[in-house]
């Protein structure tokens, strides 16, 4: 994420927390209604954020626009989707919205270019990482507890992980096939399609984790003999088992285009994600 939006997000969170502490029942009720309205429902959270963005542009509230831009990115909105939502605002609000749209596009592009710095995102390093991952874990838990199908929730979790952590380039679940024991099939995922939709136990990093039931952190995939490549861009990978009653049932697989990006904070966070999603599998 770009510097200005990072700063905006931090300042907004500070002000929001201060207001939340300060306000009484009426303010708190309004804020919790606001959070509930944007939660995944019949409409996906992503669509709701785009609607929030369109409404904010029409009402010409720059802070609201920036907030929804950050949320749209976290929900995996593409530039084309962003552009269509902005076009509706332009039609509804007319030319008076154009100065706000110019700034919105600038913020969107700034976030895109910031993303290239990937693993160097200050929000994710050293002291900040636990706070960042705690917040992300809360969002994952919220998705698990929402209404909707298990598959849609797992899909939303893949997307939120992929778009929130700059060096998570492919995020997916492999699940043990109940009709084909010792075989994994690819469940929900976010990222480029892969040819490895079925993996036998023992093959590649995924197959090894299925066999051993232990997490594998591979900081440099070129050093691996037993490895199934999904793309030449992948430099590292982390695979964590998901267990029920001590038995392996599935796994979370994350590929990265960065070399050695995974820290102990990733392992701790992703282990908790695996525990949180177990009921969905
Ligand atoms: N690289 C994995 C295969 C799955 S893809 O990363 C999506 C492996 O070696 O098992």
Please describe what this structure looks like.
It is elongated and about 60 Å long. β5 (236-244) and β6 (247-256) form a beta hairpin. It is of the alpha+beta class. A 6-stranded antiparallel β-sheet has the order 3-2-1-6-5-4, with helices on both faces. The chain is built from 10 helices and 6 strands; from the N terminus they run ααααααααβββαβββα. 53% of the residues lie in helices and 14% in strands. The structure holds methionine sulfoxide (SME).
Question: How would you describe this structure in keywords?
Answer:
281 residues, alpha+beta, 10 helices, elongated
Query: Based on CA inertia axes, which overall geometry fits?
Result: elongated
Radius of gyration: 20 Å
Number of helices: 10
Ends distance? 32 Å
List the helices and strands in order. Answer: HHHHHHHHEEEHEEEH
Which percent bin holds the helix content?
40-55%
List the ligand species.
Answer: methionine sulfoxide
Instruction: Report low-confidence residues grouped into runs of 5 or more.
Output: none
How do the strands of the widest beta sheet line up side by side? 3-2-1-6-5-4
Strand content: 5-15%
């Amino acid at each position: 994420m770009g510097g200005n939006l990072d700063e905006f997000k931090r300042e907004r969170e500070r002000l929001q927390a201060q207001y939340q502490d300060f306000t009484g029942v009426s303010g708190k009720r309004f804020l919790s209604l606001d959070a509930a309205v944007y939660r995944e429902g019949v409409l996906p959270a992503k669509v709701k954020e785009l609607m929030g963005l369109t409404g904010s542009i029409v009402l010409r509230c720059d802070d609201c626009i920036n907030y929804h831009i950050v949320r749209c990115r976290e929900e995996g909105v593409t530039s084309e989707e962003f552009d269509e939502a902005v076009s509706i605002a332009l039609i509804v609000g007319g030319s008076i919205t154009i100065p706000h749209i110019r700034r919105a596009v600038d913020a969107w592009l700034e976030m895109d270019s910031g993303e290239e710095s990937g693993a160097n995102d200050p929000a994710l390093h050293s002291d900040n990482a636990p706070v960042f991952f705690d917040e992300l874990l809360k969002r994952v838990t919220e998705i698990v507890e929402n209404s909707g199908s298990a598959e849609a929730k797992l899909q939303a979790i893949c997307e939120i992980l992929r778009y929130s952590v700059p060096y998570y380039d492919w995020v997916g679940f492999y699940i043990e096939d109940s009709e084909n024991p010792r075989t994994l099939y690819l469940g929900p995922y976010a990222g480029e399609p892969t040819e490895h939709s079925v993996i036998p136990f023992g093959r590649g990093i995924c197959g090894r984790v299925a066999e051993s039931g232990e997490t594998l952190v591979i900081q440099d995939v070129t050093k691996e003999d037993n490895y199934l490549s999904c793309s030449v861009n992948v430099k590292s990978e982390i695979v964590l088992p998901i267990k029920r009653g001590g038995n392996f049932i599935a796994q979370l697989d994350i590929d990265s285009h960065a070399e050695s990006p995974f820290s102990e904070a990733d392992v701790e966070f992703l282990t908790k994600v695996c525990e949180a999603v177990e009921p969905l599998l």
